[in-house]
């Protein structure tokens, strides 16, 4: 089984969010870039599945310019076998999915994180599946391979399901897919330097959405403090003032 | 022109979120001179479908084909696309929840539509078509222009208050041609937890963090949650330690919730945690560290020991209720 893991290159989740002076673009000055947290969990599970046997290849793919290469190198250090970077700026989900569709045909299992932590689109995985006209399963919190067949755990409201699925399939994964993201070991980092990071030219693709402007949320009023021994007053405030109890 | 709303059902019933979607669509329909058609997939009684008209649907298309019970993403999106085409819909609205997020991207591709997810308000403008959404997990908002004739959007929960309208509504059976080969998933097993308030439905959420010290100290919070019919949640370290199930983890990489009241006990409020809860209407924090960042987003706070404060709160809630 061959696995493709889609990798989004995002600002570190502790980044203080700022926009350029006219508020039309994210200000990336001084920002640390990381593998999107859900993509990192997806990759971790892919590596675990390979270690258990039954997976012959893990490829990671990203749409972006050369500045995303350190993120792909990290993915190689975590355990991917090779990487593909489609050399074009990521503009919107449809454009990214169109680019990825051009390299995704030969894989049995395509893994995507439930969303990217920057623009929170939740769209690329599903779009890619539709472009390839293949199955997709969202809210996946577990993937197992038994006798060459894929089984997914899917979260539903108030519970979970075990599914079998036809391949190829896009699994859109979330919390639970792997316990903790795998940190690259020194050996992995050394080996990653020798692995192939293929840069491919983009296909022609349209974008259908564009950012007009950004804004930060309004500042919250100061927190009203209640004394430690006066929980009764807190409940009264919630009941009478905030009217939420 | 018509607006198509996919109204998911939960065991044959709609929820407030369903009415938020319909009401949102009705409000856009009014501004653009359109009609609202709801699409229902599954076994829903006509009396339940009629409730949608209270919020402004003109028509309901119902699909009762049992094959869709597996919630197959490929097949369901084909059905929604077929309904959109049959209605000549220029806008398709879905919920920004598990199922909506799974289907909307597929529907958008098939209809050559522009997609925006997690929309939080009525469109800023119609020409050009601009909507507002959260980005950076609640740390900012963006206005996004959709540059396509057909628009697909997913609406965030609790972002539009349902308004009763009482349209007259027709209910029609709808039988889209979806091939067996489009049903790609087989459900082997379903496990549902019963008797607990779903985090996504809960109007009040009680949540514990590292300050709860171990998995054995949750009796007080569980009692409080029971008293308030609240959902239980926790921060990431708690689920990582295995003190609580990962299904209760709220935060950037866990569940993102927006209840009326979120009460955080022993949670310092790392930026990743706040991303999952910052849309709550009212936030209460109890933490022994007065410098904890949770107090920057909280509306009400107590600096103190959770194990002292929790029993007192429980007593006060009981008193209030009696």
Low-confidence stretches of chain A: none
**Average predicted confidence as pLDDT of chain A:** 96
The portion of residues assigned to helices of chain B is 25-40%
**Major β-sheet strand ordering of chain A:** 9-8-7-10-6-1-4-5-11
Arrangement of strands in the largest sheet of chain B:
5-9-4-1-2-3-10
Find the CATH superfamily of the largest domain in chain B.
Answer: HUPs
Largest chain-chain contact?
A-B, 85 and 96 residues
Q: How would you portray this structure in words?
A:
The complex is a heterodimer of chains A (245) and B (322). In chain A, helix 2 crosses helix 5 and helix 3 packs across helix 4. Chain A is globular. In chain A, 48% of the residues are buried. Chain A has 6 helices and 13 strands. Chain A has a single domain, classed as HUPs (Rossmann fold, 3-Layer(aba) Sandwich), CATH 3.40.50. Chain A has helices at residues 37-51, 69-78, 93-101, 124-132, 186-194, 231-241, and strands at 2-6, 9-11, 33-35, 57-63, 82-86, 109-113, 135-146, 149-156, 159-165, 169-173, 197-200, 209-215, 224-226. In chain A, a hairpin with a 2-residue loop joins strand 8 (149-156) and strand 9 (159-165). Chain A is an alpha/beta fold. With 322 residues, chain B is α/β, with parallel strands linked by helices. Chain B has 2 domains: 2-182, Rossmann fold, CATH 3.40.50.620; 204-321, 3-Layer(aba) Sandwich (Rossmann fold). In chain B, 29% of the residues lie in helices and 27% in strands. Chain B is built from 9 helices and 16 strands. Chain B has helices at residues 16-32, 46-51, 73-87, 98-110, 219-227, 236-240, 271-277, 294-297, 306-321, and strands at residues 2-6, 35-41, 59-63, 89-95, 114-119, 125-126, 129-135, 140-146, 151-155, 170-173, 185-192, 204-208, 231-234, 261-265, 282-287, 300-303. A 7-stranded parallel β-sheet of chain B has the order 5-9-4-1-2-3-10, sandwiched between helices. In chain B, helix 1 (16-32) links the parallel strand 1 and strand 2 (35-41). Chain B is elongated, with a radius of gyration of 21 Å. The chains are: A alpha/beta (245), B alpha/beta (322). Chains A and B meet through helix 1, helix 3, helix 4, strand 7 and strand 8 of A and helix 3, helix 4, strand 5, strand 7 and strand 8 of B.
């Amino acid at each position: 089984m061959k696995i493709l893991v889609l990798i989004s290159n995002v600002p570190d989740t502790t980044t203080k969010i700022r926009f350029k002076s006219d508020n039309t673009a994210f200000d990336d000055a001084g920002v640390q870039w990381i593998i999107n947290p859900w993509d990192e969990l997806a990759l971790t599970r892919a590596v675990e599945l390979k270690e258990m046997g039954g997976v012959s290849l893990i490829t990671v793919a990203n749409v972006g310019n050369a500045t995303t290469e350190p993120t792909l190198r990290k993915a190689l250090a975590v355990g991917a076998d090779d990487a593909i970077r489609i050399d074009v700026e990521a503009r919107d989900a449809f454009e990214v999915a169109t680019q990825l569709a051009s390299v995704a045909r030969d894989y049995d299992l395509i893994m995507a994180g439930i969303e990217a932590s920057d623009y929170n689109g939740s769209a690329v995985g599903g779009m890619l599946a539709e472009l390839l006209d293949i199955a997709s399963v969202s809210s996946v919190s577990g993937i197992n391979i038994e006798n060459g067949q894929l089984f997914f755990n899917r979260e539903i409201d108030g519970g979970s399901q075990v599914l079998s699925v036809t391949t190829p399939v896009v699994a859109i994964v979330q919390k639970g897919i792997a316990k903790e993201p795998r940190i690259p070991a020194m050996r992995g980092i050394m080996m990653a330097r020798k692995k192939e990071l293929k840069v491919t030219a983009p296909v022609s693709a349209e974008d259908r959405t564009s950012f007009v402007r950004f804004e930060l949320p309004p500042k919250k009023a100061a927190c009203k403090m209640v004394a430690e021994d006066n929980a009764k007053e807190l409940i009264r405030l919630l009941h009478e003032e905030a009217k939420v109890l | 022109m018509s607006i198509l709303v996919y109204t998911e059902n939960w065991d044959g019933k709609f929820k407030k979120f369903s009415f938020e979607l319909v009401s949102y669509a009705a409000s856009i329909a009014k501004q653009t001179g359109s009609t609202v058609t709801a699409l229902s997939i599954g076994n829903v009684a006509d009396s339940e479908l009629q409730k949608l008209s209270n919020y402004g649907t003109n028509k309901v298309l119902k699909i009762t084909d049992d094959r869709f019970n597996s919630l197959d993403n490929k097949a369901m999106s084909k059905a929604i696309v077929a309904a959109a085409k049959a209605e000549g819909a220029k806008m398709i609205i879905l919920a920004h929840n598990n199922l909506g997020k799974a289907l909307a991207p597929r529907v958008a591709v098939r209809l050559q539509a522009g997609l925006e997810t997690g929309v939080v308000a009525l469109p800023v403008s119609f020409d050009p078509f601009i909507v507002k959404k959260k980005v950076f997990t609640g740390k900012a908002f963006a206005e996004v222009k959709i540059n396509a004739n057909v628009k697909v959007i997913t609406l965030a929960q609790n972002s539009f208050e349902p308004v009763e309208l009482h349209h007259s509504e027709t209910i029609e059976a709808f039988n889209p041609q979806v091939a067996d080969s489009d049903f790609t998933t087989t459900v082997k097993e379903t496990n549902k937890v019963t008797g607990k308030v779903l985090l996504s439905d809960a109007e009040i959420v009680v949540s514990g963090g590292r300050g709860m010290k171990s998995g054995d100290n949750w009796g007080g919070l569980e009692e409080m949650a029971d008293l308030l019919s609240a959902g239980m949640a926790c921060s990431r370290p708690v689920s990582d330690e295995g003190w609580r199930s990962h299904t209760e983890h709220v935060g950037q990489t866990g569940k993102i919730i927006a209840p009326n009241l979120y009460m955080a006990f022993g949670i310092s409020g790392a930026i990743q945690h706040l991303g999952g809860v910052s849309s709550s209407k009212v936030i209460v924090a109890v933490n022994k560290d007065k410098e904890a960042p949770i107090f920057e987003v909280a509306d009400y706070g107590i600096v103190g020991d959770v194990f002292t404060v929790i029993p007192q709160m429980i007593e006060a809630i009981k008193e209030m209720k009696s």
